[in-house]
Amino acid sequence: PINRDANYLEVYDLQNIGSAPKKITGFKSDIENVHFTPDGTGLYARDNSGYSIKYSDLSTVKEVITSKEKITSLDLNLNGTMLAGAGANGNLYLWDIGKNYAATTIKISKGLSAVKFAPDGRQLIIGDIEGVLYLVSNGLVVRTLAGHSSQIEDVDFNHAGTFMATASKDHTVRLWN
Question: Which of 11, 48, 75, 172 is 20 to 30 Å from 65 by CA-CA measure?
């Protein structure tokens, strides 16, 4: 049998590539959506098949968020103050890190599959299981974008923040300006 409590991260020192990696234990099940804090002293990751979000100070791990809804995608804003989670049942979760992870929940669709903070850190792009994208600002859907015919897998912005790319299970990548 597989020991699901034995999962761990390995941190490599890229300045000393020949050194052994640092092993960080304390994860359960799959570790996904790893996001380093802006200062590089810690990271957030989805764990426990999407029902847990953990924080690591790169030495220890602690659970900071437990969710009743499976979180399918996680993002951290650029200044490291907010986490956003896409829920399998269609809810968008916003967690305020500075307020002990106080949560705001917004119903978006039947099922969400991707979430990404826009470079401004205030707006979000949300992808759903039917291929629809939602632009969310101040807790409201301000625009929907159609074009994909299947689940959105990933959203990312170019470094200048002037356009984004979306990847879908319809086997396409779309560029949006």
Answer: 11
Q: How far apart are CA 16 and CA 95, in angstroms?
A: 35
Residue 81 token pair: 């103050």
pLDDT tens by residue, 78-130: 999 999 999 999 999 999 999 999 999 999 999 999 999 999 888 999 999 99
| pTM across the whole model | 0.92
| Burial category of 70 from C-beta neighbours within 10 Å (exposed 0-12, middle 13-18, buried 19 and up) | middle
If 0-12 CB within 10 Å is exposed, 13-18 middle and 19+ buried, where does residue 148 land? buried
Edge-to-edge strands of the sheet including 152-157?
152-157, 164-168, 173-176
With tokens 């959203």, the residue in question is 155
Is the four-CA dihedral 55, 127, 169, 130 of positive or negative sign?
positive
Q: How many CB atoms lie within 10 A of CB 62?
A: 9
Q: How far apart are CA 155 and CA 166, in angstroms?
A: 5
- Rounded percentage of the chain residues whose pLDDT exceeds 90: 87
